[in-house]
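Input/output pair, single chain:
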Amino acid sequence: MKEAHLMPEWSFTLLVNQPLTPEQADAFDHCDAFGDGSVSYMLGPAKPEQYPVRSDPADLIQLWCDVEAPTLLDAVAQTARNVRLIPGLRAVGAAHKDTVTLGDAAQRCDRDYESLVQLSQEDERFPEPLETEGTVFYSWLHIADYLRRLGDDVPHTPRELVIADRALRLVEDLRGTDVQPGALRALGLP
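Output:
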């Protein structure tokens, strides 16, 4: 009997071109591609002027993603493709949240989860967890700085996420421009 191989789950933020309208949110909620709950969004109030606390505009153009895929780049690409199923919505960038679990942090560096757990339990210099209820979260920036002080080579942003973000931004910048395919190939693009 074959053992099932589980794909890793990648956490990232996908930036979209606009806050979701109520119609787009409804389409999103009924789209089979998002039926597993791996992607979530924030919808602003219909009449924001009636609310004393306003939504952060940056939150309204973000999709929070926890997607299973072979690689981070595959996870971002799959989600960006699925976003285009919602009329008028498209992905325009990708980023990481600062708030991470130790499992998320392990995906961003060359250490495994068990190594980070051991460091968190045995080294008093390991960053303190953030104030949370239930799941224990940490600041990625603090963990990355700590690992760098130990001598680990930890990038600020994983290369795959940088590639995904730049590709999405390039596609967005090219929208509506009259760039000949030959010019793109001359620049080294397929």
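The two ends are 42 Å apart (CA to CA). The chain is about 35% helix and 15% strand.
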